[in-house]
Queue: 2 jobs
Job 1
Amino acid sequence: MTSNLPDGFEALATHVAEWGLKTERERHRKRVASSLAAVRTFNQALAPRIHDIVAYLNKFPGADPDELPPPARSLYNLALAFMETSHPIDLNWQRPDIDDAFPIDRLEYLSPIDLR
Amino acid sequence: MSTSLETQFQGDTHFHGDRSGLRDVLALRDKITPAAFEREREKIFKKSWLMIGHTSDVPEDGSYVVRELPVVNASLIVIRGRDGKIRSFHNICRHRGNKLIRGGAGCKSTLTCGFHGWTFANTGQLLGITDEGQFHNLDKDKLGLIEVATETWQGFIFVNFDPQPKETLVQWLGELAQGYDGYFDKQVRTARYRVRVRCNWNLAVNSFTEGYHTAYIHRNTAPDYQGGKGNPQRHRPFMQLLPRHARYSAPANPDHKITPAEAVAWTYGPKMLPAADFDYTGMAPALNPGRAQYWLFDVIEWFPNVLILPGKHYRVELEFWPLSAAETELTVTAWTYAPQNFGQRISLEFFRTRLREIVREDMNTLEAQQAAISSGAMAEVHLSQQELVLAHHYRVSEAMLNA
């Protein structure tokens, strides 16, 4: 079976379908809609590999994700989802979202912005 | 009973500016009524320099953005003319008043009305009238687009709906126009969010102009980013009241505990919220104006409705646009230096997503405050010395309303 991630990162391939999301809005909503256990599983799967992921992606020039080949782009999407999922895990929340925060279904993520 | 904030203060905040006439007890219900809002529209929003965008939004000759500004009953076209100058025009055809551009952004060398085909230059002049022979005594030179005073400063675009603004933009900004050279215009937009809240615009602005709340409302997202052992109550080290605007500094916690993903982020990019970079070398002189040893960011209120939070490697801009007396559109934009590699880009993802969660906590207080204050159950609010910028906001507001 061929991996949808670059060589060396095959073990993370099982997370791509769920967490390899392209936009901040999708990643945020995925986090909040998941169980805390699922968020933790994903975050802890990425944590030991995140420096390797950055080292791999830094071999590509620039910082525009649309320039990456598809397997590298999937890896990049996972790295961003790692940051998205870090907040409930690193801050020891009891849920994937905080209780006393503005509802995310009323939050508009505006584009265009200069960064994706 | 109200006390004089001028004489009573004891503590470690260094105050600058005029504290005379400030009140620490405010009857806020009177400030959020529809009648008060109608007066604000005429006396404040039509008389102030309003920040409505950035020069980077209109990069080329002919680039434009359409801004809807219900608070002043206006739709504006902000456009860079073929001469490179940025102007703003009412989005109105001079013939019969049709809307020239329906919305959005783009680039046009000329603007043609869809109703009868009148054409205007991107500098505003009326260029062509269709079937012109059927009109009598038209002076085309007097039928250009209706211009609104527009000035730029450090990459920001401001407009003023006063037909004859009493001050230039630099005069309006006063001391805040100095010392930011090279800071704002090198950053790019990193994130942008918008919400509509059922809350008066004053209350919304007020919620972001004091640091007293940070230990409580942000306990889940940034539990230890400010204050620390040497400043456990997180008193602002510096606070400055200007003729219209205000500025203060937030104290960083030098013992902030860096969490795992944060440690990854700061490996590849500069320390940003909730951490701080204490090397101030080369920083624009207006930042950290009190020269605090442990500085996190400043909060600047550009009266009436914009806040800028500049840090060393980022800034956050908050725009509060009233939709009515009881509803506000709030836009939050994060700006940083453009990432040069994917490691920096991933580092920025930590910053922008944490910032977003912190701001969601601030946003969540607004509708509750509106409901409580408008209910009339509570006659007044009492302000701490750390909430002095709120008192100042209403002092400035009253001066303009009574002018």
Job 2
Amino acid sequence: MKTLVYIDHFKGELQPASWEALGLGKSLGTVSAVVFGSGVEAIASAAFEYGADEVLLADDPALLDYRAEVYASTLTAIASAAAPDLILFPTTTRTRELAAMSAMDLNSGVLADITGMEMDGDRLVAVRPIYEGKLLEKAVCTAKPQFVTLRARAFPKPALEAGRTGTPTKVVAKPEALTSVEGYTASESTVNLADAGVIVSGGRGVSNNPSLTPPAGLDEKQVEIWRAQQGFALIGELANVLGGAVGASRAAVDGGYIPYSHQVGQTGKVVTPDLYIACGISGAIQHLVGMRNAKVVVAINKDSDAPIFTQAHYGVVGDLFTFVPALTEAFRQKLGK
Amino acid sequence: MKIIACIKQVPDSEAKVSASGGQISWGEAPLVINPFDEYAVEGALQQKEAGGGTVTALCIGPESAKDALKHALAMGADNAILVSDPALSGLDTQGAAHLLAAAIKKIGDVDMVIFGRQTLDDGFGVTGPQTARALGWPMLGLSGQIKVQDGAVRVERVIEEGRQSLSAKLPAVLSVVQNIGEPRYPSFMGIRKASKAEIPVWSLADLGIQAPAPVVTRTEVMTPPVRDAACEIITGESPAAIAETLVDKIMAEKVL
């Protein structure tokens, strides 16, 4: 088996699931990491440390910013020359496009966002959720190379072997561009829910703290948002102590309590953390499909009939405004923080 | 401007979907326009309002998919076209992209093609970029804002790390995300117009191509394993006591 693994990064900042893809590739045979960018030798070195047998490095000013057609054409040229059986990617906003377009170039196909796999000879049988995770399918790509993107945290991360080195093989970029990048604005919050090991989420319930007195001069909607922000501050503290990320239900995002980038669920992100703590989230089906594959789910809600409890391992029926700070304090003591 | 919104018909999100003997069923639940594609129609209508032109909704599917196209018409699309042919079976995203590209070329003089982020059923999220590739047009994916000026389109692309502004000359293919704005509800007049609309159906022969051979195929469909454990409700004398018990339980799970 010959596998290429595309290492995804943004301005040198790695998408950690890239290493999960490298680990899977390594377990199947020889693996070449593919690194695109400008001034990205450090990523090539890291790829050797994570076990790449070879690193194909296209380091070119034309590749400074991700542009779909430039990256796709460069990948297509590399894949044509290397003729791998399989090309693996972490599933990200960039790789869905990149895999999609390069697969078209090579008359092959994409198995996107898979969560499991088995091998049938040199054919990868992908397991992937369909119908919002209500079902799973097994699917194969009958042409070569097989383009496969892996959902973050679905495959184990390989151990880093410090000091393992190699010399990257330089490959040329295909710089013909149809799009130009004019600028970039960092997220107001750099939340990466897909890679988070712990997520603490808030829902509509975070705006209901009756014991708070809002500042004067706010209208009704502003008071609601102000209350919700106080609630999310409590959730943020708990997430902080656990080294986790803050998530939210659609109701909280639609209410203007927190930016969309935090949304978990069908129209937000599908997440698979080790620990998911839902605070004041009733549990609409659209939210449940986004978080029910978390390893351990804790639900905190004052309504004991809330559907969120059907997906939870542990539940606390009560007021989140008194309970969440108590939980934060208990973790702080237990974890010595 | 001639704008195409590409849509698909899927079972409603509330549907209880089940699998038996390799067949997928969704009971009595209705088939609807893919919710992500409503944003594509919304984005197309916004561009029409900003710069004039027409919006055509384009769909591949069986005869029943006309209902999804009628939803787009009711929202305000000017035209709708269904690509349908009995020879189409097991169509994969690559094949869909080739069909859509052929239909877009047949429509002619198209300036902009807009897709939703992904479908609710198969969820690949790749048909948009693949259609761009089949057409040889630029791909501006996951756009949260769209602005057209002087024959070029500029978008704010929403990515993991923030927003990137991208531009390209028209014609171009876009996909849109929720930041584009909530899809409008069909108006009463729109619904009346849509109910009377005659939607043309284009066959493979009309497009002048053969049924694309699938490259990606489903070999099995399964029900995911159900979570066995019932929820354990933690109780105690005080919030602090409950918290302590809960922390011990979570620590014992060894997930931290």
